[in-house]
Amino acid sequence: MAPRTRRVRTVFIGTGPFGVESLRRLAERPSANLVEVVGVVAAPARPAGRQGWIETSPIERAAGELAIPSILTPVRLRDPAAIEAVLGLRPALVVLADYGRIVPRPILDLPLAALNLHPSLLPRHRGATPIPATILAGDRETGVTMIRMDAGIDTGPIVAAARVSLSGSETAPELEARLAMAAADLLERTLGPWIAGTIEPAEQDAGAATLTRLLRREDGRLDPGRSAAELERQVRAYQPWPGAFLETGALRIVVLEARPTTLGVGAPTSSRPVGTLSRAGDGLALTTADGALELLEVQPAGGRPMSGAELLRGRPDLAESTVVRSRPGADDRGPLERPVR
After folding, report:
1. Residue 72 needs a FRET pair 20 to 30 A away by CA distance; which of 144, 246, 247, 283 works?
2. Same domain for 208 and 223
């Protein structure tokens, strides 16, 4: 193949922080002069926080810092005007990371296709929330997969993948940061061979696929009918949103850090009903289906983060109180992850 004399016109599509490092690599170190980022597509700015301040996405902010010549924020990328605006940049290649919206066929059918960087080892954890799903499942390994996008949800053939081992102590923000760097590294290694046409994508094993869904606030509720290990993973997986929380009749408590434990001599878990808050030394623990979950760091509603022991000193009435197992009328859309049939 003759050497390429012009850089490939490339559009980056993304919204969340996972894709920021990949965008920076493309713009600042354009893979041995292979690509030119001619535009960025991101979700539009939206109100955030209690004050409702308008907040732009991490990708839009990064694109501004990098002086990307065209930044598009369509409400619906499928609208004809949005498609026309993207194609008007004359891209030959799209790179996508953490966009969370449907990409229409005309953008998928570019000469060098649309490449998606997905934070799991596909076909495991397809869909909207692969990082929380990885932690919830207790996976000991994850990674980043680059696929050639098709019309399905993370179903395209695999171009390349990078594996990342897990210690079992990662929070969702920590794991996202690690995978963001792994994605950028994978992109740099793979882009040249992809443009040169030396990579043949491999079809995914559909029989091994699982699908994740969008999170809702009620997902964060800690159900003491589950094991302490499962609840500890939930605390790590649901940071910063929806957060892991429990409620008594008088107080809502966000749990920021926890660990499986026993309640010690003189306070056997078997003597306490599941769902009871009890003393664990100087601290506070929740009786679970198979033991107890010690609440190491918490944040009561309207308060500041503090240790479980500090909360108990201020609210001794919490000992022997019972948590709410579920909220009447709460939407239940099933488990976060399910097999693809």
Report:
1. 144
2. no
